[in-house]
Structure formats: structure tokens, C-alpha cells
Amino acid sequence: MLTAKDIMTKNPVTITPDMEITQAAKLLFDSHVNGAPVVGKDGKMVGVLCQSDLIAQQKKIPIPSLFTFLDGFIPLTSLKKIEKTIQKIAATTVRDAMTENPVSVHPDTNIEEIAALMVDKNFHTVPVEDNGKLVGIIGKEDILQTLIKK
């Protein structure tokens, strides 16, 4: 059975939280990767930045839907979610656009679990960590390549 260590890209491209968005976008594009781990000065992973995080900058600012009840306005969308969307749209650094506290997998995680995680959670990029240390990354392309090799 294939595991994360069998399909992951070792020594992945990483970016820093203080990197400018345009610089990070160019790095992702030039490296032909969908996403990259965001690593702090201490070497610990603090987030993941994906192309979808960057594409969010092209969105319009969401106007929350409201309804009235007993003369009060009740938002139909979480204000925290709206705030995060606005933060991503206005981002100038990776810190503002990245997904914090990303889900990661262990090198021994089997491919079925990784595929389920990607599909169920709509993840395009999954970091691989061993004892808190970033050791690789898996993208959807890595999963697809296993189908071709059969």
C-alpha cells in the first residue's frame, strides 16, 4: 500500500509569512506547484498558501445577506468568515492570505486517507510532517500520478 512518503515531494518549496503576495505568486507559478508550506523563522510550519488563496484577491467584497426579526438585523453569513475573506482580498503579505494551522499528514499515512482528506475537505495541498518537522508535501498531481503508474 502506498503511503505519503512514497508519493510526497521531498524538500518542498517553502515561503515565509512576511513575503509579499506578488513574490509568493511568482514563486508558486515558476515552481509549477499549487501550494507551498509557510514556514516561520523558527522553521515551524505556520500555514499553507495555495493558488486558491491568491485567486481570492480577485473576488468582490462579500455583502452579507441579512434578514430582520423583531426589528433586529441577523446576518445569514458568519461575520468571522466575511472578515477572513476581506483579509484575503486585501492581503499584501503571505501572512494575510495563507490558511493558518493547516492539516498535515504523517509520512506513513496511506494514500486512501490522503485522497479522502483532499476530496472531503477540498484540499489541494497537504503538508507531510514527522515529529513537527516538515518533510514533504503532497499535491493532487502526486495522487493522480499513482493512477498513471498502474
Helix/strand layout:
Blueprint: H1 4-7, E1 9-10, H2 21-31, E2 35-39, E3 45-50, H3 51-55, E4 66-69, E5 72-75, H4 79-89, H5 94-97, E6 99-100, H6 111-121, E7 125-130, E8 133-139, H7 140-148
Antiparallel strand pairs: 1-8, 2-3, 3-6, 4-5, 7-8
Account of the 3D structure:
With 150 residues, this protein is an alpha+beta fold. The chain has one domain: Roll (CBS-domain), CATH 3.10.580. It contains seven helices and eight strands, in the order αβαββαββααβαββα. The protein has helices spanning 4-7, 21-31, 51-55, 79-89, 94-97, 111-121, 140-148; strands at 9-10, 35-39, 45-50, 66-69, 72-75, 99-100, 125-130, 133-139. The mean pLDDT is 82.
List keywords for this structure.
globular, three-stranded antiparallel sheet, CBS-domain, alpha+beta, 150 residues
